[in-house]
Amino acid sequence: MSQIQFTRNEQPKAKPDANHLGFGKYFTDHMLVMDYTEDQGWHDLQIVPYGPISLDPSAMVFHYGQEVFEGMKAYKTADGRISLFRPDMNLKRLNASCERISIPQVDPEALMEGIVELVSVDREWIPEGDDTSLYLRPFIIATEPCLGVRAAKEYKLMVILSPVGSYYPEGIHPVSIYVEDEYVRAVRGGTGMAKTSGNYASGIKAQEIAKLEGFSQVLWLDGVEKKYIEEVGSMNVFFKIGGEVITPELSGSILAGVTRDSAIALLRSWGLPVTERKLSVAELFQAARDGKLEEAFGTGTAAVISPIGTMKWGDEQISIAGGDTGEWSRKLYEAITGIQKGLLDDPFGWRQIIL
Amino acid sequence: MSQIQFTRNEQPKAKPDANHLGFGKYFTDHMLVMDYTEDQGWHDLQIVPYGPISLDPSAMVFHYGQEVFEGMKAYKTADGRISLFRPDMNLKRLNASCERISIPQVDPEALMEGIVELVSVDREWIPEGDDTSLYLRPFIIATEPCLGVRAAKEYKLMVILSPVGSYYPEGIHPVSIYVEDEYVRAVRGGTGMAKTSGNYASGIKAQEIAKLEGFSQVLWLDGVEKKYIEEVGSMNVFFKIGGEVITPELSGSILAGVTRDSAIALLRSWGLPVTERKLSVAELFQAARDGKLEEAFGTGTAAVISPIGTMKWGDEQISIAGGDTGEWSRKLYEAITGIQKGLLDDPFGWRQIIL
Ligand SMILES: Cc1ncc(COP(=O)(O)O)c(C=O)c1O
Ligand SMILES: Cc1ncc(COP(=O)(O)O)c(C=O)c1O
What we know:
8 helices, pyridoxal phosphate (chains A, B), 9-stranded mixed β-sheet, homodimer, BCAT_family (chains A, B), transferase (chains A, B), Branched-chain-amino-acid aminotransferase (chains A, B), 2 domains, branched-chain amino acid biosynthesis (chains A, B), 19 strands
């Protein structure tokens, strides 16, 4: 097992029922940890039994939120192998997030090697049912025990694994969206392009309000003019208007989704024009009134493709694709999950067989 | 000791040298903890030996940043008592932060009682030198072990105590400020009015750049127009221009500082006009060029008053009050610390003698 230190969990847990996994509720028997100090840099990558970590209450992550994370999935392929989907993009984005939050860069190759070992150790945990996979959550927290607002000098990187079912209990099913025009998730010059905990904390309240009003997700507008569409929930968002697919450009306050990038490439390969540009919610609703809004969907690792059935902005509510899963949403979902699970050809070389 | 559960630390630490405390580096022998579950609400307030806490790696605080905190100080007064400064405002603000971050409200009276007990238990830790005090850090973290972006169902509240010296190694001494016009700390509709970790993570990078350029703090502009002055470092900010004191209004992206509120009241009681309004950095620099910018200072619990000696915006650098500590900065510093330490009358009833 190369030079990675490994401590086997001698008390493995019972595996959960693969039909009721939910999302992020169960964790496997092992986890990866790696520490950073000023003297040694990143060091001591280990695979150890999954279990609680012990931190000083003054650990900086508890006070000043220096944290970044990633999310990706491992799949059992049709021929019994194990694949990841474009993990290089996740590791690159992890370092981009680190850069924004002043966390030291991680060697992507060493981390990738550790991740492969970890998945290998816990491979029995990868569920096999439809819409299931093993979710990988790498994250880094500032552990230095000090109350001073500055970059920490000590960090811990961990990777934990969770067997998951559909992100939405209903599976691929149109969601209802509420256009949020009071609360803001991120702003140009802020941290929206980084995968860092504070972005998510800031979104919880709006999401609770949307739920109370009967909607399942929030559509975020830009923080400057509250006019342009940014993301939906924790997903990037696409609209098909008059035969053209439009998705918000990566302006600095939007996360550069791996699924977003993949959806753009696939749609283009199918001959559909895709434009990355600013799209105002007013333009979108006008297109809906004119009968030109043909389809809308969110993209993200957790749900892959999330068709949008209805959308409410102020007093106006629109229905999209008759409230159903549109043609291209379904095609994308099938293409991406097909590539991930080894059921389809992989023309872009996205599937990475690791075991 | 009322109904608070107390476990004495049987291995008390040696106290640090009162002349080299720094800020937030040493912690006392005990801490307060209280847990929240959906069933029981906040319960089990305890005072226990200071020490590490154990959390599942999937604890939501590590991923989605649901966290709020406060900062206040306890002082030994001239006649040997122990005082806090307007702690009711901190507890009110804690709950305001909780509201924004969807954390359940805390009973301020129960928490206050716990804080008094905790300070009492560790009263020997309150340093007595000039510019020293015992810093109190209440904070709340989401502890539920689950990877789902929503409000957690389990939380832990803690209060830790740190004997501190001057926040700035130089003591009350003019600082140099860099006007940040790329990175943004907070925006209207975001979380700037809450004391939550994500706001601080987002500011670290700009602060590092400022340090590299030889400045000690960043002046933040509003996230929408990048035109109006918001805060400086982790402080509110005041300017005296042509005899009038101006401080940014509480627009929603600025923290409502306890020191800010106190400075406004004191300045007004001394007959100075104080206006809370939008102030653009262009207006400020014009006032400086016109010779009307008489004084500038930051306010905050950590440093109390931090005079601003120089300020750089783009290519222009101005010197304020001859680069020295201005008259009103000094008066405010002496008035506030005098009230805190029981050396001066307390006309507003801000000093709360707790022991
Ligand atoms: C805010 C946000 N936007 C978009 C995405 C989609 O990114 P990806 O497709 O890489 O999962 C995520 C993560 O899943 C996210 O957290
Ligand atoms: C962002 C920010 N602004 C202003 C302040 C000043 O608030 P207070 O005077 O209550 O300490 C603080 C905290 O110290 C802060 O963190």
